Amino acid sequence: MMKSTTIRMDDDLKKEASAKLDALGLNFNTYVVMATKQLVAQNRIPFDLVVPDAQSEDEGKREEAC
Question: Domain for residue 29, yes or no?
Fold first, then answer.
């Protein structure tokens, strides 16, 4: 049995993601299913999660200001 799921997301973010997925021949639903299958298979988030330290974040803001 398949259930439907609703994801709330900023419209601009969804557009950008969909454009990149379209270029790969995928749709948003397929991507979400693929990522979820990898979560289950690998028993972890299927990509690296990194919390930037405060110093790196401040340097990035200074570079953007230039």
Answer: yes
